[in-house]
Amino acid sequence: MAILVTGGAGYIGSHTCIELLNAGHEIIVVDNFYNSKPDVLKRIRKITQRDFISKEIDIQDKDELEKVFIDHSIEAVIHFAGLKAVGESVQNPLRYYETNVNGTLVLCNLMAKYDVKRMVFSSSATVYGNPDQVPITEDSPLRATNPYGWSKLMVEQILTDLAASDKEWSISSLRYFNPIGAHASGEIGEDPQGIPNNLMPFITQVAIGKMNQLKVFGGNYDTSDGTGVRDYIHVVDLAQGHLRALEKIQKISGFHAYNLGTGKGYSVLEIKEAFEEAAGMKIPYSIVERRPGDIAVCYADPAKAKEELNWEAAKGIKEMCADAWRWQRKSFKG
Ligand code: NAD
Ligand code: UFG
Fold first, then answer.
1. Which residue pairs, CB below 8 angstroms and at least 24 apart, start in 18-25?
2. Integer angstrom CA distances of residue 136 from 113, 179, 199
3. Which of 31, 100, 114, 240 could form an SS bridge with 82, CB 3.0 to 4.6 Å?
4. CB of 268 closer than 6 A to ligand 2?
5. Domain boundaries, the chain
6. Ligand with the closest atom to the CA of 294
7. Does the pLDDT value for residue 334 go beyond 80?
8. Mutate which of 89, 203, 268, 269 to test ligand 2's pocket (most atoms within 8 Å of Cβ)?
């Protein structure tokens, strides 16, 4: 019996594949390589010394995806495949709804048809919008401010309804906070195309000389130093959370959402300083206008994941920065 991993060549998916293989799971990766490269799969094999089946398939291609369910015995699905750029989702909402919502519908229909009713879904802290209070618990109000966020909320609603309709379904929706860092080998990590949207890849690209300076979006938020505060979590900790969720869905039914974060918030300037220490260099920066749609503070209450999944983040900000930097240097050299 294998775990089907959609989007397994991507940033979080690739790190999760390593943890799954290391834990002895058999996996099948499905990815259309829209935002990743096939080479990542070779690197996963190299790191783990384990082989696995991988297929270039768009999850919306029902016929191709169905062949995977026909040809293999699948016990559960970890569903990462999707589009994740907030700004792009505002420019091209249909594409986001198609991939994230329709793609999930195609997948769920096949899962139902082939009686595979266990899923771990990649949700996001974005489903809390601008939170009323921090730390954010799972029962906080859900809201969205852009099509990407709506697509995650819609899928959570679909999965909630699906689990309510049939007690055999067991679904964990993992609401990630801000994943950063990379595998300690430096072989895999986040590989954004073009100018990075997110803070850590931007900082590492300034450090390597690809970007001139960091633009800090807003210096007048109501935070300790005026810059935005987020809950940064090491991607390997996040990956391990998926294994705990996988164990959980074997035991219980229904739809359950979990925050995967550390419970600590760091400001943009604190992250910049932590990176400077890890890399032994200064990162030039300037404070510019706020980025539209950004919120001041966002960090998790991760107690539910600790209690119910027996999971908590172990790696601190130093390790996140050191690992992000190792990956950036190694990948820049090719
Ligand atoms: P990523 O872009 O690195 O990985 C997504 C993978 O899915 C890529 O390999 C991409 O090629 C693949 N993919 C996209 N569309 C596909 C399709 N139609 N068919 C098959 N494969 C397809 O992103 P990531 O950071 O690894 O994120 C994984 C999941 O986690 C996404 O659903 C994302 O929305 C969610 N998430 C990410 C973050 C974050 O900050 N990285 C935060 C919260 C939630
Ligand atoms: N920031 C900068 N300069 C940059 C990039 C970011 O100052 O060049 C700041 C932002 O203003 C914010 C913080 O750094 O205060 C973090 O920004 P990111 O873009 O790295 O992350 P976000 O919290 O905005 O969003 C991320 C994902 C979303 C996801 C959300 C919650 O990009 O998809 O985390 O999980 F929804």
1. 18/44, 18/47, 18/48, 18/183, 18/188, 18/239, 19/236, 19/239, 19/240, 19/242, 19/243, 20/78, 20/242, 20/243, 21/48, 21/50, 21/52, 22/48, 23/243
2. 36, 17, 21
3. 100
4. yes
5. 2-181+232-262
6. 2
7. no
8. 268
Give me the torsion for CA of 44, 197, 237, 105, rounded to 10°. Answer: -80
pTM over 0.90: yes
Give the model confidence (pLDDT) of 32-41 as tens digits: 999 999 999 9
* Paired residues of 3 in beta bridges: 27, 76
Q: Which residues are catalytic?
A: 148
At 277-326, the pLDDT tens digits run: 999 999 999 999 999 999 999 999 999 999 999 999 999 999 999 999 99
Q: What is the CATH number of domain 2-181+232-262?
A: 3.40.50.720
Predicted confidence (pLDDT) at residue 333 exceeds the cutoff of 80? no
Task: Say which DSSP state 126 is in.
Answer: G
Amino acid, res. 42: K
